[in-house]
């Protein structure tokens, strides 16, 4: 049980965005539509501080730690202005796995896009506007996930 908790904690930390610029959501913020959120993610890769992820157009969600010690496979969904990735995370070293996931809620303030990560403890000042800078078109993750999966024996 403790290995699962430690593994899941490492997964959550890996997905944590850099929120040094976190702020309060302005009163004139408008939630994005589900269609707008899908456009932000579909066919895009994210390059976070400790992990890389790919949001495939068919809703496949792939992720791996930048240290290549783990990978994850699952699905991403959109509900309203929120995108969520749910997956099975696997250790490359011993093949053990656990499940987890994260969500991001999106808002627009004028021309600025702001998001809130579900793991953020500060529910009032946890909004930030740097997430889109971490996204790029195309799949920059699948090849590494396939290699890590082979190494893990799963």
Structure explained in plain terms:
The protein has helices spanning 2-15, 34-41, 142-152; strands spanning 30-31, 44-47, 51-55, 60-65, 70-79, 82-91, 97-109, 112-117, 127-128, 135-137. The longest helix has 14 residues, at 2-15. Strands 1, 2, 3, 4, 5, 6, 7, 8, 9 and 10 form a ten-stranded antiparallel sheet that branches. The protein starts with a helix and ends with a helix. With 154 residues, it is an alpha+beta fold.
Number of separate strands: 10
Average pLDDT score: 88
Q: Which stretches are poorly predicted, pLDDT < 50 over at least 5 residues?
A: 4-20
Name the structural class.
Answer: alpha+beta
Number of helical stretches of at least 4 residues: 3
Instruction: Work out the count of structural domains.
Output: 1
Shape: elongated
Distance between the termini: 21 Å
Biggest sheet character: 10 strands, antiparallel
Helix percentage range: 10-25%
CA-atom Rg in angstroms: 15 Å
Order of helices and strands: HEHEEEEEEEEEH
User: Beta-strand percentage?
Assistant: 35-45%
List the helices and strands and how they pair.
Blueprint: H1 2-15, E1 30-31, H2 34-41, E2 44-47, E3 51-55, E4 60-65, E5 70-79, E6 82-91, E7 97-109, E8 112-117, E9 127-128, E10 135-137, H3 142-152
Antiparallel strand pairs: 1-7, 2-3, 2-10, 3-4, 4-5, 5-6, 6-7, 7-8, 8-9
